[in-house]
């Protein structure tokens, strides 16, 4: 009887080791995301001006304003509209005194964020294994 427990213990240890190895050495390709230098300037403006206090990217941030993850590819929201939103101040969206270059940098940042995926990921599918298959952006150049 005692031997039986010992072998069960060792089997569990082996399963644990194999499972851990599988999980920690899995090389899932999440893609390599690199912002252009203008988008990096835009990200700095985004951070310095605390846009995230009211806006979200991928649902994370403050909730006074809308999520901006995919705002740059929104069919009804042109670049002009987005720039005007930034510099005119609408309702609780403050007015920012960005130069036209700075507006371009922020737009570039939002554009490159947009390329990374969808939020909310409405077409995600739950597979029979329980894993979630996200809908990915096909056209990364958009
Ligand atoms: C104090 C809160 C607040 C801060 C800070 C803020 N926003 Fe906003 N923003 C809002 C609100 C609220 C709206 C929605 C205004 C409306 O449509 O009535 C908005 C709207 C927008 C829109 C238009 C979104 C759309 O879908 O129409 C853009 C673009 C935007 N903000 C960019 C920015 C950027 C860039 C910053 C930082 C430089 C920023 N916001 C900082 C509150 C904020």
UniProtKB/TrEMBL annotation:
It comes from the Bacteria. Keywords: Heme, Iron, Membrane, Metal-binding, Transmembrane, Transmembrane helix. The keyword Lyase does not apply. GO terms for molecular function: electron transfer activity; heme binding; metal ion binding. The keyword Transmembrane helix applies. InterPro entries: Cyt_c-like_dom (IPR009056), Cyt_c-like_dom_sf (IPR036909). Residues 37-114 form the Cytochrome c domain. The chain crosses the membrane at residues 6-24. This is Nitric oxide reductase subunit C. It comes from Chryseobacterium limigenitum. The lineage of its organism: Bacteria, Pseudomonadati, Bacteroidota, Flavobacteriia, Flavobacteriales.
